């Protein structure tokens, strides 16, 4: 078997069998497999997954929480991760050699994570070292590839989440004079601004052109933002906010910090996915909310809170396309493959990459 055949055997596309099954047949198959495998199987489901998938999740949450739960669940030999590629990588990094992590559809990626590859990052690091010398500490959002986490770990940095970003940025400044924030410029900008860093002290590194976008003197730069973004959250605009303020002046606007700076500034509240969920749960009956985050989650919150008036901040927003790659058909296929002992769509991070990536994660976890 050559390399191409090997890859195809491990990462096959969905067989026609599952395309021809009814919803009832697929759901019954998933339930049957879960019952037969018991504790040996663990299905983590990210908040942004479709309801047809999330109904079978053993745990729901954000990417890091789900990876940690996978690692804590020592009885689980098989972890079928319903999320995207970088999330499954993190689960593989944190779990043991006796546990295997699977991604039901290998096309389920993250456009933000893909905006920073390791070759661009190594080139950027060389470029920035020439400009600033040994004054920079790298931080990466957990929404990044294992290779980027590994690079950050090898260079003394750490990962961050949208919940602990402020704490981690403060920590970075206790280590070095400057920081490089990958791969989401908006979370980096919003976080730095919140702790008192001026917008005129933030530069943007453009990985496509290998240039630093900054108009002032270089010695003024404190934060270097990677020019990446979430394709979902960047689609919330100041015009969306103006529409809500005009048509529903009593409605509160809550957004994710992956939104643009001007959107966050004009909103009433901003925070992580869990922050948004908890704010809605704690709000009184009859309260009104416009939420700036992924549409599957917004629709789920609408269904869970019929006593509240909840809408998407952008009424034309679509669910995250890559998150939606995983559907009931792919979940059923993945589970049946696992039960039959087939190594389909296994996510495995090489040992060297995993070691340094784990360093970056552990530095964060020690401070959180």
TrEMBL record:
Cofactor note: Binds 1 [4Fe-4S] cluster per subunit.
Binding-site positions, [4Fe-4S] cluster: 110, 230, 320
Binding site for iminosuccinate: 46, 63, 141-143, 162, 256-258, 273
Subcellular location: Cytoplasm
Function, as annotated: Catalyzes the condensation of iminoaspartate with dihydroxyacetone phosphate to form quinolinate.
HAMAP family, per database record: NadA_type3
Gene: nadA
EC id: 2.5.1.72
Domain of life: Bacteria
Family statement drawn from the similarity comment of this UniProt entry: Belongs to the quinolinate synthase family. Type 3 subfamily.
Any single Pfam family the record assigns to this protein: NadA
InterPro entries (UniProt xref): NadA, NadA_sf, Quinolinate_synth_A_type3
GO molecular function, one term: 4 iron, 4 sulfur cluster binding
UniProt GO cellular component terms: cytosol
Main subcellular location of this protein, as a coarse class: cytoplasm
Cofactor dependence: [4Fe-4S] cluster
GO biological process, alphabetically ordered: 'de novo' NAD+ biosynthetic process from L-aspartate
Pathway: Cofactor biosynthesis; NAD(+) biosynthesis; quinolinate from iminoaspartate: step 1/1
Protein name: Quinolinate synthase
Alphabetically ordered keywords of this record: 4Fe-4S, Cytoplasm, Iron, Iron-sulfur, Metal-binding, Pyridine nucleotide biosynthesis, Transferase
Catalytic reaction equation(s): iminosuccinate + dihydroxyacetone phosphate = quinolinate + phosphate + 2 H2O + H(+)
